[in-house]
Amino acid sequence: MRSPAPNSQVGERNTAFAASGRRRTAFDRSRDWEGGKAKTVTMILTENCQLRCRYCYLVGKNSHHRMSFDVARRTVDYLLRERELFKDRSLIWDFMGGEPFLEIDLIDRISDYFKRQAYETGHWWFDSYRFSFATNGILYDEPRVQRYLEKNFRHVSVGITIDGTPGKHNLQRVYPDGRGSYDDVVRNIPLWLRQFPEASTKVTISRADLPHVKDSIVHLWELGIKNIHANVVFENAWDADSDKILEDQLLALADHIVDYETYMEHSCSFFARHIGRPNPENRNWCGAGKMLAVDHAGVFYPCVRFAAFSLQNRPPLKIGDCVAGIDANLLRPFLALDLVSQSPPECIECDIAAGCAWCQGANYDFADTATIYQRATYICRLHKARVRANRYFWDRLDRKLAAPEERQRPSTP
Amino acid sequence: MTPSPPARADAWNRVGLDLQQLIVLTDAAAVSFCHYRNRGARPTAASRMPLRRLSRVVALANKRKLQLQFVLGAEPLPAAHERQIDQAPHVKIAPLALARRYRDAVIVLDGNDLARPDAIRQARARNLIVRLEKSQISHAADLLIPYLNAARRINVVPLDVEQYGHADVEEYRRQLQALETPVAAACAAGDAAELNVLSDRLSLGRMNNCGAGVHHLTCAPDGQLYICPGFCYGDKSAAVGNVEEGFEIRNAQLLGLDHAPICRTCDAFHCKRCVYLNAKATRELNTPSWQQCVLAHHERNASRSLRDALARLGVDVSRLMTPPELPYLDPLTALPGAAAAPRVRAAAAPAPPPSDREILLKILKVQEEILAELKKKKGDRS
To answer: Which pLDDT score, from 0 to 100, does residue B236 have?
Structure first.
């Protein structure tokens, strides 16, 4: 299962140890636009995709659910009108699918409409917005896509999902006939990186991918993608030796980073300073509810993981629509979520909890009752493996950076 | 996941730790006595709990030391049923129509009952439950004032609160305000009824909520067990067990205060924290609607005002609690990270002094920063 976009808190935490008196590595730098404070509105334009990735949480792909411009227009109008409700300084339009670039003409029209309306209504978002894309990359070089990117260049971010080595990528990211998609994606990586040199990609890891973790991340770095967000799937998809395999892979990755000194330019979210500490505060990790997702029919969800095509076991969890707006009462459980109220005692008391993630949508889907307040803990042993590898990594890196010859080298800005 | 019979049966063995009461609906047409509505069912012999089951329920309650509350329908119970329920100490909850027959019963008055002359006669020295329709809120004070000198206690239950708009909430506040003077005067005269929405908060130093699913369960006429009567009249899958096999409440922790993030730090101690209304309005047992929160805060604020009014009348208020002034009406807005919540704010008021807990947390935070700085200095030196 693919996970939602990485939570902004990770970036904020990464900056927390930046001023430690030693050189700033790529692991120290925050890359979140607006420090993660922007409102993210996910537009589920289509439930269609060229691929049928085996881990994808979008289990109900189809070609008949497409957003109309009228639905998009109503959504834009609602968001611009409700200034009391949406006070966020900035707005990120997160266009997704399925595959968003299948709907590039609609995206162009929505983007133009938003810009014009924001200007005409004097909304502060006119000066502070972004159009964000998570794409499989297959259509990236298509002329209409390129025209759109050029037209909106200063306001666009694009993430192309590529999972690593051809073997790892083609294991999961396949066409309906089972063919791997690696070649169709990798040919667009150079163009993408020329246009977005600081772009990152997201790697999702399920059981079958574990033996390929280190090679895949190194492969992505070699392709020129400097920043890798990686996470394991939240499902009950793990067996007795999964944690051991992950730990071995991460230890090998740590050695690679330190031995080959890739740490100044390249990072991977598997390693971060804060990982493995006790929980710093009683906060929710997931951003569901603080973001907003809109499906093809204009129905609002607290995140895309609560839309019908994302859920395997439960009905969709709507919080409103583009005509009636958000039902404040249906949003309240999300705004009130904290660590303690949804976690089992062993998680609350866990000494190495920091960095242990959860997905509210997955929690809801797997819970014993229809609640978002029961945390799924299938990744517990994998998190512990990650913590052990993370400690090993920082121990090695700190010793390396503390060496006299290393301290005299300049930091990369 | 359906719990296995042994797991369910074992749940009865936990009785006494938390579970204290069993509410028994003696009839499918039993009177609605709280926020839920019992629609449609007509009292018939078939709708009544069979005598054998009633006998089993009473025996179970006696064995498990559970207090019993019998909720009656519009018709008196048959003599055999009455003899059975007298086998255990209990409370009866009955509609006005049965008030004369059951002199010891708590009487439920629906809004339209309040103006009936016999309702006031029957209310004398009784505990009343008064269910007010949304349409009656605008004259709630006028409806309730005649009962202040008659009843022993009045539990007001506003209905359909999840449908209240801001204007309705404001009207509710005005009605509480209108009740202040008559209640204070009756108190000063020494014969005032307790009025839950005004007087309860003044005697509470900690949360005292409904406790559905924690302190009490509800048994339907067919023997099925529910968290509370509100869950009996909707989806039948809401049953958590039955009297024969026991029960298991999945995710029962969500019924407790410690798993209710909005309520956990709230000081509307008198609030019912109705999990049925929570589920109805927000789909989560542990999350109240904004209407519940704001109404409860208007009540706590009105209680505070009542305390002042009593003091002005020379009533000794030294033993009454003093709810502090708060700058908000919806405690969700006071939670960290809930800035996006639609805000309902009280009129400007000075911020309350920090609690001991807040002061301790601040100290801890400062210490953490100092610790981090010391560690950094130590690291630099080494």
So the answer is: 76
Alpha helix locations (H) across A166-267? Answer: 166-172, 182-186, 189-195, 213-223, 242-259
* Predicted pLDDT at A17: 26
A18: left (phi over 0), alpha (psi -120 to 50) or beta: alpha
Substitution target from B263, B266, B284 for chain A, most A beta carbons within 10 A: B284
* A317 has a chain B CB within 8 A of its CB: yes
pLDDT tier, A261 (very low <50, low <70, confident <90, very high otherwise): very high
Contact A336 B339 (CB under 8 A): no
Q: What does the pLDDT look like over A43-79, one tens digit per residue?
A: 999 989 999 988 776 666 777 889 999 999 999 999 9
**Residue B252 near residue B8 (C-beta atoms within 8 A):** no
- Looking at beta carbons, which residues of chain A come within 8 Å of B338? 335-336
**Residue length of chain A:** 413
Query: Is B250 an 8 Å CB contact of chain A?
Result: yes
Report the alpha-carbon distance of residue B99 to residue B188 in Å, rounded.
Answer: 29
CB of B341 within 8 Å of a chain A CB? The answer is yes
Whether the CB-CB separation of A335 and A289 falls below 8 Å is answered with: yes
Q: Output the six-digit token pair for B204.
A: 């509470």
Which domains can be identified in chain A, with CATH numbers?
33-197+287-336 (3.20.20.70)
Return d(Cα A46, Cα A72) in angstroms, integer: 12
pLDDT in tens, B213-244: 999 999 999 999 999 999 998 777 899 999 99
Does ipTM come in above 0.90? no
Contact criterion met (CB below 8 Å) for A133 and A156: yes
Query: Using CA atoms, how far apart are residues A288 and A291, in angstroms rounded to an integer?
Result: 6
Residues of B in contact with A332 (CB under 8 A): 262, 282, 287-290, 332, 341
pLDDT digits (tens, 9 = 90+) for B126-145: 999 999 999 999 999 999 99
Q: Which residues of A161-180 are buried (b: 16+ CB within 10 A; e: fewer)?
A: bbbbbebbbbbbbbeeeeeb
Mean pLDDT of B17-35: 93
Q: Which two tokens stand for residue B246?
A: 């026991």
List the single best residue of A91, A341, A348, A401 to mutate versus B (max B Cβ within 10 A).
A341
Q: How far is Cα B380 from Cα A402, in angstroms, rounded to an integer? A: 10
Residue B111's pLDDT band (cuts 50, 70, 90) = confident
Average pLDDT taken over every residue of chain A: 89
From A86, A335, A372, residue closest to B341, measured CB to CB: A335
Q: Which of A84, A87, A373 is nearest residue B284 as measured by Cβ atoms?
A: A373
Both tokens of residue A27? 């692991």
Task: Tell me the one-letter amino acid at B345.
Answer: R
DSSP one-letter code for B15:
T
pTM comes to 0.87
Helix then strand then coil, in percent of chain B rounded to 5, is 45, 15, 40
Count interface pairs A-B at CB distance under 8 A.
Answer: 85
A244 interfacial to chain B (CB closer than 8 Å): no
Q: What are phi and psi of B9, to 5 degrees?
A: -60, -35
Nearest CA in chain B to A344: B253
Please give the full DSSP string across A150-185, using - where no structure is assigned. Answer: HHTGGGEEEEE---SSHHHHHHHSB-TTS-B-HHHH
Q: Is A87 exposed, middle or buried (0-12, 13-18, 19+ CB in 10 A)?
A: exposed
